[in-house]
C-alpha cells in the first residue's frame, strides 16, 4: 500500500510488558496500513535511561527528574501537534492518565481521535465515560485492523468537508455548553431542558451549517 502522508500519535499505558506489547501492536497495524506513527516507548525520551546519564554529568537527582519531566511533557506536546491524529488505547481497569491528557490535547486542536477498546471492563453503568468517548464522536474500535480503517474514513470525511468554514470541535462544544449553562441558570423546567438538548444534540444531517449554528446560539433567548 502506498504510504499515506499522515502521522498518528499512539497514546496508552506503557508500564508493563503486556501494555507495551499492545501499544506496539497498535502501532504496527497503523504502519502496515501506510501510516507513520509516534510511539513514545520507541520514539520518545526514556526516563530510566537518561536519568543516570544526567546524574553522571553532575545534575542532582531532583533536578534531573525535573528536567526529564519537562522534556517528556514538551516533546509529547510537540509530537501531538505535528500528528494528524491520535489513537487512544482505553484498555485496562482504568484508562491511563497521561493518555487521557494527550487525547484531550489532540481533540482540542482538531486532530482526529480514534479510540481502541477490546477490554469489556468499563467505568459508568456499562459504558465508557462520555467525556472520553466524546473525543472520538462516541465511537470506538475493538480490533487492531479497524484502527487504520477508522482513520482512513474519518480523515477522508474531514478532508471532504470545508474546514475553513467549520468551527473547531472545541468551539462548537463550548458554544453548545454555554447554551445549556444558560438554560440551567434560568431554572427552566425539565421539559424545557430536554427540548433544548434535543435541539442541540439530536441528529441534524438535513440542516445546513448556518441552521445548525443558529439552533444552538447561546445568544438566543437571553434577556
What would your notes on this structure say?
This protein has 223 residues and is of the alpha/beta class. Helices cover 53% and strands 8% of the residues. The chain has a four-stranded parallel sheet with strand order 2-1-3-4, sandwiched between helices. The longest helix has 22 residues, at 61-82. The protein is globular, with a radius of gyration of 21 Å. Mean pLDDT is 84; it is low at 205-223.
- Helix run count: 10
Binned strand content = 5-15%
Strand order of the largest sheet: 2-1-3-4
| Uncertain residue segments | 205-223
Task: Describe the main β-sheet briefly.
Answer: 4 strands, parallel
What's the short version?
The protein is an alpha/beta fold and 223 residues long. It folds into two domains: 7-160, Rossmann fold, CATH 3.40.50.450; 169-215, no CATH class. It has ten helices and four strands.
Describe the protein's topology.
Elements: E1 7-11, H1 17-32, E2 36-38, H2 40-43, H3 47-56, H4 61-82, E3 85-89, H5 97-108, E4 112-116, H6 130-133, H7 146-160, H8 169-185, H9 190-201, H10 209-215
Parallel strand pairs: 1-2, 1-3, 3-4
Helix pairs in contact: 3-4, 8-9
Amino acid at each position: 500500500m502506498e504510504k499515506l502522508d499522515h502521522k498518528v500519535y499512539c497514546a496508552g499505558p506503557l508500564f508493563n510488558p503486556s501494555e507495551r506489547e499492545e501499544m506496539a501492536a497498535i502501532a504496527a497495524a497503523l504502519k502496515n496500513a501506510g501510516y507513520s506513527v509516534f510511539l513514545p516507548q520507541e520514539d520518545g525520551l526514556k526516563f530510566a535511561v537518561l536519568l543516570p546519564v544526567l546524574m553522571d554529568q553532575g545534575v542532582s537527582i531532583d533536578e534531573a527528574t525535573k528536567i526529564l519531566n519537562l522534556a517528556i511533557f514538551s516533546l509529547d506536546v510537540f509530537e501531538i501537534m505535528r500528528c494528524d491524529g491520535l489513537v487512544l488505547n482505553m484498555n485496562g481497569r482504568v484508562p491511563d492518565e497521561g493518555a487521557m491528557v494527550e487525547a484531550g490535547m489532540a481533540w482540542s486542536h482538531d486532530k482526529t481521535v480514534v479510540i481502541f477498546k477490546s477490554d469489556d471492563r468499563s467505568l459508568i453503568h456499562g459504558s465508557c465515560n462520555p467525556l472520553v468517548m466524546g473525543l472520538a464522536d462516541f465511537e470506538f474500535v475493538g480490533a487492531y485492523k479497524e484502527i487504520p480503517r477508522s482513520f482512513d474514513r474519518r480523515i477522508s470525511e474531514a478532508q471532504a468537508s470545508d474546514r475553513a468554514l467549520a468551527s473547531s470541535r472545541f468551539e462548537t462544544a463550548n458554544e453548545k455548553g454555554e447554551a445549556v449553562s444558560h438554560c440551567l441558570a434560568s431554572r427552566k423546567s425539565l421539559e424545557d431542558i430536554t427540548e433544548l438538548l434535543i435541539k442541540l444534540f439530536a441528529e441534524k444531517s438535513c440542516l445546513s451549517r448556518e441552521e445548525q449554528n443558529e439552533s444552538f446560539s447561546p445568544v438566543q433567548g437571553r434577556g
